[in-house]
Amino acid sequence: AASDVHVIEPDPAQAKRLAEMGVNVGADTSALPQHAAIVIFAVKPQVMQDVCRALPRERKPGQLIISIAAGISCDSLESWLGAGTAIVRCMPNTPSLRGQGVSGLYATPAVSETQREQAESILNAVGISVWLDEEKLIDAVTAVSGSGPAYFFYLMEAMIDAGEKLGLPRDTAERLALFTGLGAADMAVHSDVDVAELRRRVCSPNGTTERAIETFRSQGLPKMVDDAMQACADRAAEMSRELA
User: Fold this and answer.
1) At a CB cut-off of 8 Å and minimum separation 6, what does 51 contact?
2) Would you give per-residue pLDDT tens digits along the chain (244 residues)?
3) pTM of the prediction?
């Protein structure tokens, strides 16, 4: 129930919008109830340490902490919140705003099976979730899905520009590119074959699609994607070290 949810939001405009949803809103962590079974940190990584240290010292035993802050390791959170704190670290992505998100989740040993189910249920409310066996894989999740929407937006942007260059009105090129992306993703999700096979099925021998794919390949698209995602994962690891 909304009345069971407490949100700490210092920005007055945001606080007003949240209050209209029926949840309890406070301006600082002193408003956080001590009996809260689950606390979700949805803050910028740069302020996470200050937020953790501002929490009430007396907290519910066995409280579950869920963090969506990029680059903040579970070790860092434990050092600020206390050893043995039950922590689930997750990396969601922006399509969560549309209920189409995907999140990678990692749990520390202190997290119980019930708490894992609770965390999964919360993240699944805005999409789907995938559990990770090692925390370091969060960096790979960041490279694939956390930052991934921007890759698709960038490709769509390039397709729209190219369509306009080919003579299409920009709004027409945009509609064609966006709905092609939507349809292709839906087809891939619900297909019984992998994406490589779906691509092959579109490519008639010596046809138009094959010519386009060969151009992508000759221009080094696979390596470009590999390099870009490695750079993203490397930066995620760097941030963890910088913010520790």
Assistant:
1) 29, 41, 43
2) 898 999 999 999 999 999 999 999 998 888 888 888 999 999 988 899 999 988 877 778 889 999 999 889 999 999 999 999 999 999 999 999 999 999 999 999 999 999 999 999 999 999 999 999 999 999 999 999 999 999 999 999 999 999 999 999 999 999 999 999 999 999 999 999 999 999 999 999 999 999 999 999 999 999 999 999 999 999 999 988 888 7
3) 0.90
